[in-house]
Amino acid sequence: MKLGIRPTVDLIFKAIFGDERHANITRSFLNDILVEIGRPRAASLEILNPFRPGHFSGDKDIVLDVRAVDDRGREFQIEMQMRSFSGLPQRMLHNWASLYLATLAKGDPYAELRPLISIWILDCRLFPDAAWLHVFELRDEATKRVLHGDLTIVTIELEAWEALIGEATTGTFREGLGRWLQFLRGAQDIDPDSPPAEFTSVEFREALEIMATYTKRDARRDVYRRRFEFLATQASLELEAKQEGRAEGKAEAQAEAEAKAEAKAKAEAARSFKALGVAIDIIVQGTGLSREEVEAL
User: Fold this and answer.
1) Quick check: 68 and 37 in contact, CB under 8 A?
2) Is residue 179 within 8 Å of residue 198, measured between CB atoms?
3) 3-class state of residue 108 by DSSP
4) Which residues neighbour 234 within 8 Å (Cβ) at sequence distance 6 or greater?
5) Which residues pair with 181 in a beta bridge?
6) For residues 35 and 177, is the Cβ–Cβ distance under 8 A?
7) In the chain, N or C: fewer CB atoms in 10 Å?
8) Is the dihedral of CA 189, 194, 200, 204 positive or negative?
């Protein structure tokens, strides 16, 4: 039987990748990302903010990111984002800066700051290009020199990735990170008792088992339902606000255009009356323009 729940819902994403009992899942996913962006793999991983299902109601506007530290001392933030908005890039920078500063205790030298790799999995489009993977650093535009390697922000756009996989049969689209992205995009249609061959490894089977608990247990299924409805409602409200804003913008633009057309017509009429020798006082009275406006024509 198909799972019918989406791993891109932040609650499920956190349950899969934010549980210290299943840190091997997180390490597998993270290492595939690190390999893809050309960074060393993590030999071990500690979850810094483990998920506690009993502490979560499902219908609150909270951030369910995954934070971890590896054996090299690198910190990671992994966040699942279902929708885009105009301030999302700034939010990425803000989150990175807040977490980076938190790695330094009061009185410690700056050299004690830890590298922080912030990874955003986006179930939406963020950038207008066709690339599904972006890696941002503090890099000089002319020389390409990196100011410091502590800052890395990675964005992975699932929608852009899916648009490209139809033409690919090998490489990153079907192996390594590609399997995880395929899982995130389509796990809701998988039967955990008979998964496809590419999802039969220990990590994928554990991930499917975690998801299955949200279909078999009434309390967890209810939390998932409320979280899904909350996110859907938030998305609908944002869409309505955008549409109302566009409608208001169109009405304002139309009113402005009409005002400009009326002003132009009055000026042309006044100019014609002046050419005919009509008195300025009469032109002012007839067009509604000021004496100064008429004299300036």
Assistant:
1) no
2) yes
3) coil
4) 61, 83
5) none
6) yes
7) N
8) positive
- The b/e string for 117-130 (b: 16+ C-beta within 10 A; e otherwise) is bbbbbbbbebeeee
Whole-structure pTM value: 0.73
How confident is the model over 121-145, as pLDDT tens digits? 999 899 999 899 999 999 999 999 9
Tokens describing residue 3: 């799972």
H/E run at residue 66: strand 66-70
Return the structure tokens found at 9.
């819902």
Q: Crossing angle of helices 10-17/202-216, nearest 10°?
A: 130
- Token pair for residue 43? 């030999």
Q: ∠ at Cα 264 (280, 276), nearest 5°?
A: 35
Give pLDDT tens digits for 260-293: 767 776 777 677 666 656 677 777 777 778 888 8
Helical axes 218-275 vs 280-287, angle rounded to 10°:
160
The C-alpha atoms of residue 96 and residue 248 are separated, in whole angstroms, by: 35
State the greatest distance between any 2 C-alpha atoms of the chain, in Å, as a whole number: 94
Tell me the domain boundaries of the chain: 10-216
* Polymer length in residues for the chain: 297
